[in-house]
Amino acid sequence: MNHRSFRFLTVAGLLAAAPAILSAEETEAPAPPADPMLEAPADVAAVPEDAEKSDSGLAWKVLEAGKGEAKPAATDTVKVHYTGWTTDGNMFDSSVKRGQPASFPLNGVIKGWTEGVQLMTEGEKRRFWIPADLAYGENPGGGRPGGLLVFDIELLEIEKAPEIPADAEKSESGLAYKIVEAGKGGDSPSEDDIITFHFSAKSMTGQELQSTRSQPQPPSVPAGQLTPPMREMLTQMTPGEKRRAWLPGPGLPGGHAEVDFELISFKAAPPAPAAPDDVAAAPDDAEKTDSGLASKVLEKGKGGDKPKATDTVKVHYTGWTTDGKMFDSSVTRGEPAQFPLNGVIKGWTEGLQLMTPGEKRRFWIPAELGYGENPGGGRPGGTLVFDVELLEIVR
Asked: What is the mean pLDDT of each run of 10 residues along the chain (395 residues)?
């Protein structure tokens, strides 16, 4: 499950209607009983008085006792059959209807499921009334049901999560790791350095998550821009060292990702470029296009060749918000950036087509050509200001 919230597990596909070829006598035969997990419960509208409740507001009733005493932990993976209804009796999702049980890490679903299924044993069937604050909220949008939700759940199997090796070392903050290959000695990088490294991550059950090994070059990133766990690991290493670490991974089996690091090198970061004097707004003498993009040439390029939207370009750049806060810079990383020009924000796609190799230009990019006014996800909103140097048109 992704994003630590329960997602519908419905699959694409349609069942064709069978031809009406049964005889009248055959059609009069009684239909087989429907699976009770496909019928809206009589008590779907509200929590009954005899339901048990937890401090969180979760309510339940045991429909069928399970076997044994083992219960899943939040980090375990469970296999279940389930059906979900809104309080008007509308069924919005069902593994029973699909004929295929669902399997997922228990820490990767809505809070009501994470709490409730931990109360169950294998073979048990239980009905849950999950309040909105333990599900998707009152008005979640995106096709997800809002308000109180009712689920009938049958716990079929518990797959215990793999555990971090007992002989793993622990960092000061408690991160577990093992040194796979010693480094060449010498100093370790500081938080102010640019670190060049490789890493690959997989789940505790072996699912590949992410790797830099497929990239043409290993990434070079200021240590301060790494996540705290990655920064802690890499700043403890020396060049050439390889290390396996178990980093927190909410929503993953076992609650951790198994990450292999290799520290290749590090160097001092160049000083960050100062914010321009005209960062707050485009000056009167800036060129403007019909789209609202504004720019000034800071240094002329050489030749007349200009990139097309379908070309790949290599650039150095620094970006600021209009209050002078720098949010990204290839200059401080000490590595130019390379990308297809039609794969970036609209202001870049339009603006770089005005430039020639060697040219430096300042852009004022309005929100509609950037990330919008309030994009979220850590991206800067509103008007953005970029100083861009076009190093090469790669084609």
From this structure: 31 25 35 69 96 97 94 94 97 95 93 98 98 96 94 96 94 96 94 94 93 90 91 97 95 92 94 95 97 97 92 97 95 89 97 97 98 92 98 92
Q: What is the pLDDT of residue 216?
A: 84
**Catalytic residue from among 43, 278, 311, 328:** 328
Quick one: pLDDT at residue 304? 84
To the query of whether residue 371 is one of the catalytic residues in this protein, the response is yes
Q: Which of 128, 317, 363, 387 is catalytic?
A: 317
Q: Is 110 a catalytic residue?
A: no
Q: Is-contact 159 102, C-beta < 8 A? A: no
Residue of 345, 363, 387, 393 marked catalytic: 345
Question: In this structure, what are the phi and psi dihedrals at residue 94, rounded to the nearest 5 degrees?
Answer: -160, 120
Q: What is the pLDDT of residue 120?
A: 98
82 among known catalytic residues: no
pLDDT at 152: 98
Is 328 designated active site? yes
What pTM, to 2 d.p., does this model score?
0.61
> Choosing from 136, 371, 387, 393, which is the catalytic residue?
371
Tell me, yes or no, if 177 is annotated catalytic: no
Structural domains of the chain in order of their starting residue, each with its CATH number: 24-159 (3.10.50.40), 169-268 (3.10.50.40), 287-393 (3.10.50.40)
